[in-house]
Design goal:
heterodimer; A: Arc Repressor Mutant, subunit A; 5 helices; 56% helix; 8% strand; B: alpha+beta; three-stranded antiparallel β-sheet; globular
């Protein structure tokens, strides 16, 4: 999983995992959360999720919760929150710029369909 | 006693998974494996789906941690051998493996190179690796042992005029080509570099 490079953007996988872990969750719950959040569009394979969780742990963005829970749970760290907040700011700025260029009010599909070419 | 079948798939993980899917379609669910043996018990037709993944590059701890994670996701996991090796007390060097997995013995991942993962069939395709980047990483992992096998077997085939080594060298070459094509296809689809 490769995030950012130059632009600083997170991959959708990274961002959604961070969002999932604002509440402590174990792996399977993260998969379910992401599938529900994206309406089934983003269905993460368990192997991909496992690799992503390890990478995010190495970055210090998430951490395993202590305690003898039967299933290993993870939660976002302060560093992870910072990264997620940066991503939200980036997406907001991008969406605002796009709305300005494309004429705003793109939320309703009918606008696009009826606008003159 | 369940149904027994004897098969050997070597490194053909996809073929192994497809065969297990087919068995499940016939109402047979995997319950136990040995070197060549697969034992099944009755299940509903098509009730389960299978993935087979190479983990021979991982250390024992990493492989078991990964298997535990998959079990926590609700899957059933079997370790399986990739080679037919009947030695006891064997130790092999794997220069291509991750740190921690480079010396494999009967106590580590030797003869436990593959994971067979079983999931209750929910109608969606069963994939463990779903992003292109992650799939590419997996192919790169598989490419390393193939490259090693090729590099060792080719001089043996030529210098010792050994046809057996030649067969292995050709098989390794075929594997290399296969993974290379798979990687190129992923690259063409884009999204490998972000």
């Amino acid at each position: 999983m490769r995030d950012n490079a130059k632009g600083g953007a997170l991959t959708e996988v990274t961002f959604t995992i961070l969002l999932a872990l604002y509440t402590p969750r174990h792996g399977y719950a993260v998969m379910q959360f992401i599938e529900e959040l994206t309406g089934g569009r983003l269905a993460l394979g368990a192997g991909t999720l496992y690799g992503a969780l390890n990478t995010l742990q190495e970055k210090g963005w998430i951490e395993p919760l202590g305690g003898g829970a039967r299933k290993k749970e993870f939660v976002i760290t302060a560093l992870g929150r910072e990264a997620a907040e940066r991503e939200l700011a980036r997406l907001r700025a991008l969406a605002a710029a796009a709305a300005e260029i494309m004429g705003g009010a793109l939320w309703e599909k009918s606008d696009i369909a009826t606008s003159p070419a | 006693m369940g149904e027994k079948r004897y098969r050997y798939f070597a490194g053909l993980t996809g073929a192994q998974a497809r065969w297990l899917d087919k068995m499940a379609d016939q109402g047979l669910r995997l319950v136990r494996t040995e070197k060549l043996l697969y034992e099944f018990e009755p299940c509903g037709p098509g009730q389960y789906r299978y993935c087979v993944e190479f983990v021979g590059h991982k250390s024992r701890q990493d492989a078991e941690e990964y298997a535990r994670f998959l079990e926590e996701c609700g899957y059933r996991v079997f370790f399986k051998n990739i080679n037919l090796n009947w030695n006891v007390g064997k130790t092999v060097a794997r220069p291509w493996a991750d740190p921690g997995g480079r010396i494999a013995s009967n106590a580590t991942t030797f003869n436990r190179e593959l994971l067979i993962v079983e999931k209750e069939n929910d109608g969606t395709p069963f994939q463990l690796h779903t992003t292109r980047e992650d799939q590419a990483d997996y192919y790169r992992t598989l490419r390393r042992p193939a490259l090693y096998l090729f590099a060792v077997m080719t001089p043996m085939a030529v210098l010792l005029r050994s046809w057996a080594a030649g067969v292995f060298a050709l098989a390794a070459l075929a594997m290399l080509a296969w993974y290379q094509v798979a990687l190129a296809r992923l690259k063409k689809q884009g999204g490998l570099e972000e």
